[in-house]
Amino acid sequence: MQNALRYKNGKRSWGAGVRRHKYFYLMVLPMVLFYLIFAYVPMYGVVLAFKEFNYSLGILHSPWNQFQNFHEVFGSPDFKTAFNNTLLISFGRLLIEFPMPILLAILLNEMRSSGLKRIYQTVFTFPHFISWVVLSGIITSLLSDQGVLNQLLEAFGMGKNTILFNNGSFLGLLFASNIWKEAGWSAIIYLAAIAGINPELYEAASIDGANRFQQIKAITWPVLRNTAAILLILAVGGVMNGGFDQIFNLYNPAVYQRSDIIDTFVYRSAFTDATGFGFSTTVGLLKSVINFALLFGANFIVKHGLKEEGLY
Amino acid sequence: MKRISISNIVISLVLGLLAVVAVFPFYQTLVLSFSTILDKKSAGVLIFPKSFDISAYRYIFLQGKVTNGLLISIVVTVLGTMVNMAVTTAGAYALSKKTMPGRNVIFTLVIFTMFFSGGLIPYYLTIQGLHLQNNLLVMILPTAVNAFYLILMKNFFSTISPALEESAKIDGANDLSILVRIVVPVSLPIMATITLFYAVDRWNEWWLPMLFINNTSLQPLQLVLRDAITNLSQTMNSTTGSQLAAGVQNVYADSVKSAMIVVSAVPILLVYPFVQKYFNAGIMIGSVKG
Fold this sequence. Notes:
The structure holds 2 protein chains of 2 kinds.
Chain A: H1 2-6, H2 14-20, H3 22-44, H4 58-61, H5 68-75, H6 77-97, H7 99-110, H8 114-125, H9 132-143, H10 148-155, H11 167-195, H12 199-207, H13 212-236, H14 244-250, H15 256-259, H16 262-272, H17 277-305
Chain B: H1 6-33, H2 37-43, H3 55-62, H4 64-95, H5 103-115, H6 120-129, H7 147-158, H8 162-170, H9 175-186, H10 188-204, H11 207-212, H12 221-238, H13 241-246, H14 248-286
Helix pairs in contact in B: 1-14, 3-14, 4-7, 4-10, 4-12, 7-10, 7-14, 8-9, 10-14, 12-14
């Protein structure tokens, strides 16, 4: 009877819709509160970028300071270094790290022994679940003065390595160790895309005489392209991030020159060097805005330039 | 399949070699944790274990810091994962209902947070304003929902046949009890997957406690480990040349550090194989664009 009333004239009213979903609002409430408190309240806090922060006055009552923070940030040589490093490291990651999971997924897919394939996948995925705190402990121990690498080098009569303390090799270490940690994990999403391919396509192609490489090119790759495009957009939208967890746990003053990124710079300027919270907020805001703009830009290019399905 | 040929062998070998490279650092850490100073001095290169010495483990467990950190990590992981799953499951289920008025607004607001944030300082001040410093809740509440996992779960729920829910509704069940009694039990693969993801995230949390917990008795294992590693490299930097040449202090500290790393990685190693079979399936179904 009630339903009949609600649907009269073939339309349900908005109020009835809300009432009908009352339990769903109850369910979504904790999540909404979480986002309001831990994401949107801090978002309001970016007004600090335009203020001189005073602890006793708080965010709300601290005085405005006429873009003073922006002048300071743009005048800071350390910011410039961090900005350039972030770009350099991120583009290095796009160039070197991004293709790895695709290659790995294609190779794993080409394996005929499913038992071995499973073992390999387990091995490659595992490091993803270990934190950078632990991984950097392992890495520094391997590369340390008494570490196994130096023992090997010594056994072959070569000099000691200084990978951790050398600006150039440290970047290589960042790329290599991130591939170690994440390539297997990221490959899962490509493997999922490959799993959707009809096996008959490969059979037909091989009857037509296509070799393995031709099959990859004609069947596997076209399926992976769209997944790759979406992940590329997301990666470009994170270019200003650069990988805080990894760098913060691995770097040392000897390699700040090349490895200090915006996030590590913000952390140090706020909590170690005490440059002022207004300054650090401004740097953070610039970073977020650039990321956001890049995300839109990348999506536009992928959608209209490459004619692929975009993110939205 | 006659083509079980050279190319198959080459692919298996290449991947096998990569797998060995990927495992070796973990293996080396394990070997190191059971080694003594003497092993290291006599062996030259320590690739195969020379002895099975548990003094490093005895040392870290007798020293209260690690045991305490372990306890804190377990408490935070258990409570935190429960909060994660409760809030995320309920939220994802509600968001999977396209008919709910306001659903698109809420979903857009969630997505927006994935690409834009207030940054470190406003976040820090917000949590400070909630007086969560030196409170275990700081490792539980600010990480209650991960938008990525929420979307995976929401997409999975969207694939459940509405007929299942409707039949329960006719029996008089409300939407909450439908979620608990019907939707969750038919979604076990995704529930297991996301539980694992959350548990690992809580277990690995070091950033929030580094910022907000300076009371050492409340520090989780990751932070204890981080401090140990940082202190170790500091002592390494400050030790004099002769001590470094003797390599005495160094090596012993290395096995202690390795033992701590092993202790922090073992729980993940134990859970991982059991849940791994779920998560390939879970991600595949969850990542259907919806």
